[in-house]
User: What shape does this take?
Amino acid sequence: MKTKSTLLIAFLLCGFLTGCGKSDKKIMGVSFQTMNNPFFVDLDQGLRSVIETKGYELVTMDAQWNSLKQKNDISDLILQGASAIFINPVNWEGIRGSLLEAKKKGIPCIIVDVPVKDKELALSTVASDNVEAGRLAGKALVAACSSAKIGILQMSVNKACIDRVAGFREIIEQYLTMEIVDVQEVKGNTESARPVMRDMIGRFPDINAVFPINDPSAFGVISALESAGKLDNVKIVSVDGSQEAIAAIQSGKLHSTSAQFPFEIGKIAAETIFNHFDGETVEPDIKVRVALITAENAAQFLKKE
Amino acid sequence: MRRIKGLGPLFAAMIILLILFGVMVPNFLTRENLLDLLQQISVNAIIAFGMTLTIMIGGIDLSVGAVLALVGTSTIYVLSFGDAETQSLLHFVLAILTGLGVAGAFGAFNGVCAAKTKMPPFIITLATMMIARGSAYCFNQARPIPIADHQTVFLTIGNGRLFGVIPIPVLIMLVLFAVAGILLHRTRFGQHLYAIGGNREAARFTGIPLARTQIIVYILCAVFTGIAGMINVSQLYSAEPAAGIGFELDAIAAAVVGGTSFTGGIGTMNGTLIGAIIIGILDKGLNQAGVHFSIQDIVKGFVILAAVYMDVRRRK
Assistant: This one.
C-alpha cells in the first residue's frame, strides 16, 4: 500500500520529466517579473533567437510578481552554473541580494527593460529609451495642434514611466501655447485610468490633449472620453505600440503611440553577453530605439496574420 | 511511535524525489545546492509550522501572507528611523520587537475572534488579511523600503551563514521546528490541540480551556509568520508592501502534503517539514532541470493531489 502510493508520485513525475531529460548543453537563464504580458513573451523570443543559435539553452522563469520567488529562481540558476543571467526585476532595489550572489560566483547579469538601483552590480542594462518615447509623444502632439490644455496620467513608482513623463515635459515646456493643467496617478492599467480620466474632465472640461503613460491606460482614457461624448475633441498620445493601440489609431480614437521593441531588447541583451564573452568592453547602459506610430505609418506596424 | 511510522511513505517520497532529480540534474545533490534548498524553503516552512497548529484545531489562518508584509514594512520603518548613518542596538531591538508585536497583535485579534464569536476562522482571517495588507501599503507611499547597507546585523538574519556554512535562515527554521515540535508532541498544550481538533465538544467537556488554547494557537501562527517576515525582508534588502501574496496557500500546501488533515486533529511537525521540503525539491529540481514554468505548476498541482489522495486512503 505504502510503496504503491510512493510509486504513484514517482510515476507522475517520471511521466512529466522524461521529455526534459538531462543535457550537457550550456545554459543561460532569464527571470521575468511576470509572463502575463505579451511584451515579455516577445522579449523572451528575442533572447532565444540569439542564444539558441549559439548552442546555449535558455531557461525562462516567471517570478509571478513575487520577489522571493525571483530570488530563489535566480539562485537555482546560479547553482546550476548558468553562463549568464538576464533579469527583469520585480523590485528594483530588492534584486540586490541576487546581483551580489551572482557577482560572487562571477556570473554576469544583464538587466532587461526595468532599470535597477545597483547598476554597478550588473554587466549592463538594456531598456527602451523611455525619455525618447516621451519626447516622441510630445512632438506628435505639438505637430497635431498649435495650442493645447494637457492632462497627464502617470505612474510614479515605475522608473520607466517617470522617464517618459520627463521626456514629454521636455518638449511641451518649450511651447508657451502648450499648458499642462493636471497630473494624476494611475496604475498603468485600463481599470484604474478610466475613473481618473472621468474625474479629470469633470474638473477641467476644456482639456483637449492627454498623455497616458502606456497603452492600457490610454484605453481607459478613450473609454472615459467616449462615454462623456468628448473623444472627438481630445488628442491622446500614448506609449507602447501594442497591436490594439495601432488598431485604435487606424480607427481614429488614438492619435499616436511611441512603439517599444521588446524583441529587439531581448536580441540586443543576448548579443551583449556574447560580445562580453568575446572580450569586448560592453556599454553599461544600452538604450533601445523607440518609434512613433501615427495614422500615416500605422499599417506597417500591424502584425500580419 | 505510530506517528513516526505514519511518515514512512512521505519520507520515501522525499528520498525518491531527491534521487530522481539527482539523476536528472547534474550537481543537484551537492552540499551547496542542498543547503540552498533548505534556505529557499525556510520562509515557507516557518509559516507552515504555525499554519499546522491552526489547521490542527480545525481552524485556518489566511492572513499570514499579508501579516508577513506588514511585519516587514513596520520592522524596517522602525529600523531606519532617525540617524541614517549608524547602526544602533536600540534600533535593532526596537525594530524586532515592533515586528513581533504587530504579528502578535494580529494573531491575538484572530484568536479572540475565533474563540469568542461564532465567525468562521476562514472569514475572520480573510478580513484581517485585507486589514494587514492595507496597513502594509500605508508605509512609504506603498513603495518598497530599502534596508541601508550599514544595518549589517539585520541583514545577517537573511544572508549570513554560521561558520560560513549553515545559512542563518536555515538555523532559525530548525530552532522553530524544534520549538513547534516540542510544543505539539511533548506538552499538554499539544495534546489539547489534538483533542480540540478531534472533537471540539468532547474537548470542552473534559475541561480543556478552549478559548485560551485557540488564542494561543493563532498568536503562535502569527509570531512564526513575523519571524519569517523578517527573514524575507532581510533576504530581499528591502521591505515590500506587496510581499507575501499567496504565501498562505504555499504554507497550507506544505502542511497538507505533510499529512495535516483539514478536518483537524491529525498532523505532525515532522510531516509539515517534510511537506515543505518536498515542495522545495520540486521547485528547485524542476527549475534546474529547465522545465518550463507552466509545466512546473501543473506538476506541483498533481503532486499535492497525489499526496492528499494517498493520505486519505491510508487513514481509511
User: Anything to note?
Assistant: Chain B touches chain A through 54 residues (CB under 8 Å). The longest helix of chain B spans residues 89-116. The mean pLDDT of chain B is 89. Residues 220 and 294 of chain B are 35 Å apart (CA to CA).
